[in-house]
């Protein structure tokens, strides 16, 4: 089980997550109480183990701006959180083709499961999943909760039982990452119901906004690692 600890704002939290066994740490460049700058992240990433992925969460910016920030901050992947734009994905794919394949910056597309989703929103998500699988331009797809107009950071889980069939049928070969409202006490349930490739947590392991709880981090990583 691939585990990402997101919304890090300082070196101590990012190092703790890495030392506890996280596969990736995330940094939010989108508007948020946990938003960071490329300069801040550039002071953190050189001190992390090389095997730990460093992922930036981005709003809808121009491809060149995302690529510039990613390189300045020392990121290994970008997570697109500002909606679905196949043009942006294509542009980033082209920008990131330079260099050795294993060193290429990866692309993660965020899609959303609307809370209290009707069949129309589930169908829309299924179509986006099928398109992502067909074009082969994104490396992974992250499924997050959407509450009203808020996309992510709500701390509210979506209905994993309702989403199970949609995710399994629309994207059987995609690397799916589940996010949204995960905590140490419910991550095992999410994994058992959805069988994702990975899980992503932010506020669920915090002691206060922007600061991680060592106890919650330890419990989350241990539970997720042993729930497969």
Explain this structure to me?
By secondary structure, the chain is α/β, with parallel strands linked by helices. The longest helix has 17 residues, at 119-135. The protein contains eight helices and eleven strands. It is globular. The strands form two sheets. Strands 1-2-3-4-5-6-8-9 form an eight-stranded parallel barrel, surrounded by five helices. A two-stranded antiparallel sheet has the order 10-11. Helix content is 36%, strand content 22%.
Could you outline the blueprint of secondary structure elements for this entry?
Layout: E1 2-5, H1 11-19, E2 24-28, H2 38-42, E3 53-58, H3 63-73, E4 77-80, H4 86-95, E5 106-114, H5 119-135, E6 140-147, E7 150-151, H6 160-170, E8 176-178, H7 187-194, E9 198-201, E10 206-208, E11 211-212, H8 214-225
Parallel strand pairs: 1-2, 1-9, 2-3, 3-4, 4-5, 5-6, 6-8, 8-9
Antiparallel strand pairs: 6-7, 10-11
Helix pairs in contact: 3-4, 5-6
Q: Determine the mean pLDDT.
A: 91
- As laid out across the biggest beta sheet, the strand order is 1-2-3-4-5-6-8-9
C-alpha geometry: globular
Classify the helix fraction into a percent range.
Answer: 25-40%
Order of helices and strands: EHEHEHEHEHEEHEHEEEH
What is the distance, rounded to the nearest whole angstrom, between the alpha carbons of the first and last residues?
Answer: 7 Å
| Spans where pLDDT lies below 50 across 5 or more residues | none
Q: Which secondary-structure class do the elements indicate?
A: alpha/beta
Total DSSP helices: 8
- The total count of strands amounts to 11
Q: Per DSSP, what share of the residues sits in E-state strands of 2 or more residues?
A: 15-25%
- Over the alpha carbons, how many angstroms does the gyration radius reach? 16 Å
Largest sheet: 8 strands, parallel, barrel
